[in-house]
């Protein structure tokens, strides 16, 4: 079995049946799995997905405080910009292009730490990174942790049901996980600690970094705009934290092949380019699946890529040492040949 078929903890309903076909669990099965995997009293190794959703639950009250007490035109604008653009773009910059694909490298640890904490901490790197490698290896196939063909709920709750790493990895397999994560700066458990906690990251480090990040940003927002701004932006982060879980279902055509000629050039899976995720977060998803290690996925002139602009700016300032850009290859091997045929 390939490492990427082994590294994630399989759900109780399994990835595929005896014939190799994708298992599409019912909504009841998915929800049962979800609540079972959030049960830290039944198994302490469930702590990381539990912590991930605790963050969301902690952010929800801020959202309602914003709606009830601070709903004004300027807070609505601030919430829109922060949730749709800033949080979305940061997810692309940090979790996607750096942590997972290593599309660029930082000059030093300071700039890595700076970029990591540019926004309110919501998604644990470990849950995102390892599972996203699997997603690319098994895209739209059984074992893809957010396979859109299994339905919306399958994708929406994937961070708990499908994305955590397996709890019975060998020492060599865990070392491979460490290799995939070490450049992120997130401190690793030892193998003995992994056997106890069931995760790459240690709870103490994860909880401390979360609390320090939130304390800093609430204080910063309060100094700028009082509780109105702080509650608004923390609520906006919660809105994004829920909404981002819908992306891969939409980004893979809701399980159908919705690729369009002249728009989507990667034919190996159901990933599609969409205007909204592209404009607000630089997530031109079909382009990304075509060249996953590229620091830029907005290749065409109309494909705004705010994440790329940040990376390029940081490179100009000397904070980013180098990056990979496949725009030239995209035009040479895909766009121009396709245009010539039409």
Description:
This protein has 342 residues and is mainly alpha-helical. The chain contains 16 helices and 2 strands. It has one domain (3-70, 106-279). α4 crosses α11 and α4 (73-100) packs across α15. The radius of gyration is 20 Å and the shape is globular.
Overall mean pLDDT stands at: 96
Computed CA radius of gyration, to the nearest angstrom: 20 Å
Sequence of strands across the biggest β-sheet: 1-2
Instruction: Describe the global form.
Output: globular
Regions with little confidence, pLDDT below 50 for 5+ residues: none
Please give the domain count: 1
Approximately how much beta-strand content do the residues carry?
Answer: under 5%
Number of helices: 16
Largest sheet: 2 strands, antiparallel
């Amino acid at each position: 079995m390939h490492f990427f078929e082994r590294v994630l903890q399989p759900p109780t309903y399994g990835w595929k049946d005896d014939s190799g076909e994708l298992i599409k669990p019912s909504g009841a099965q998915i929800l049962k799995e979800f609540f079972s995997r959030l049960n830290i009293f039944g198994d302490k190794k469930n702590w990381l997905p539990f912590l991930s959703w605790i963050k969301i639950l902690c952010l929800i009250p801020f959202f309602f405080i914003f709606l009830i007490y601070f709903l004004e035109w300027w807070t609505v604008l601030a919430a829109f910009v922060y949730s749709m653009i800033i949080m979305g773009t940061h997810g692309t910059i940090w979790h996607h292009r750096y942590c997972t694909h290593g599309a660029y490298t930082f000059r030093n640890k300071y700039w890595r730490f700076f970029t990591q904490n540019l926004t309110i901490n919501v998604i644990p790197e470990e849950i995102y990174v390892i599972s996203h490698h699997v997603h690319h290896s098994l895209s739209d196939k059984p074992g893809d942790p957010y396979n859109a063909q299994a339905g919306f709920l399958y994708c929406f709750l994937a961070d708990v049901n499908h994305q955590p790493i397996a709890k019975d990895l060998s020492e060599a397999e865990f070392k491979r996980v460490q290799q995939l994560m070490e450049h992120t700066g997130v401190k690793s458990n030892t193998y003995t600690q992994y056997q106890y906690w069931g995760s790459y990251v240690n709870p103490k480090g994860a909880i401390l970094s979360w609390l320090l990040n939130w304390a800093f940003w609430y204080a910063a927002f309060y100094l700028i705009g009082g509780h109105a701004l702080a509650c608004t932006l923390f609520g906006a982060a919660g809105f994004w934290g829920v909404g981002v879980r819908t992306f891969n279902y939409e980004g893979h055509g809701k399980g159908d092949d919705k690729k369009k000629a002249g728009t989507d050039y990667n034919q190996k899976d159901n990933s599609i380019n969409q205007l909204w995720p592209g404009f607000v977060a630089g997530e031109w998803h079909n382009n990304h699946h075509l060249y996953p290690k590229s620091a830029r996925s907005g290749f065409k002139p109309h494909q705004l890529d705010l994440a790329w602009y940040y990376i390029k700016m940081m490179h100009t300032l000397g904070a980013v040492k180098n990056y990979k850009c496949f725009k030239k290859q995209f035009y040479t091997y895909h766009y121009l040949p396709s245009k010539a045929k039409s």
